[in-house]
Amino acid sequence: MFTGIVEELGEIAAIESLGDAARVAIRGKVVTGDAGHGDSIAVNGVCLTVVDVEGEVFTADVMKETLDRSSLGALRPGSPVNLERAVRADGRLGGHIVQGHVDGTGTLLSREPGEHWEVVRFSLPAGLARYVVEKGSIAVDGVSLTVAGVDIGGFSVGLIPTTLRLTTLGAKRPGDPVNLEVDVIAKHVEKLLGAYGTVGTP
């Protein structure tokens, strides 16, 4: 599990195509400090398993399902990525519960700069819209954000200077893809209540 609080801005060091999968090498000084084989590290919000660590670079295998459902397939050597290690059981939950299981991708639609922050708007796949509510939480490229507004066309968030400076969201441009993970609690509640059945039926 993750919290959506990015620990560092890393970069893709290399990508090896394996046909229906890929092996990715990612450079990150902080996250590799105590990483070992089998550890989980979120890369742009996607939970990847560490295969090997050499210095400040770790490698991970990315299967076709992940490449198809996330924006990782569009990354190239040198691409910046948000990195976060799995949260410790005794750690602080600074953002919200993030699984690292991407629900879909969106597109950055617009940026509205302010004096000290920016309002950024993203598209939202129709199948995910019901899980996104104003003042609720959403992970965008692994960054825990509070939804400022939502409508049929997408949702907007406010980005503070720290987020703009220390994550990939500061350099994203209109048209760029982003990974989206909605609040897992909302999905569980929907299933328990039988969203497409009759609520209260034994």
Taking Cα atoms only, what radius of gyration do you get, to the nearest Å?
A: 17 Å
Shape: globular
Strand order of the largest sheet: 1-2-5-4-3-6
The amount of helix comes to 10-25%
* CATH architecture type of the largest domain: Beta Barrel
Strand-residue fraction?
Answer: 35-45%
Overall tally of structural domains: 2
Helix/strand structural class? mainly beta
The CATH class of the largest domain, by name, is Mainly Beta
| Major β-sheet annotation | 6 strands, antiparallel, barrel
Mean pLDDT: 92
Query: Could you please say which CATH topology of the largest domain applies here?
Result: Elongation Factor Tu (Ef-tu), domain 3
User: What is the chain-wise order of helices and strands?
Assistant: EEEEEHEEEEEEHEH
Number of helices: 3
What is the end-to-end distance? 33 Å
Kindly state the number of beta strands.
12
Low-confidence runs (pLDDT<50, min 5 residues)? Answer: none
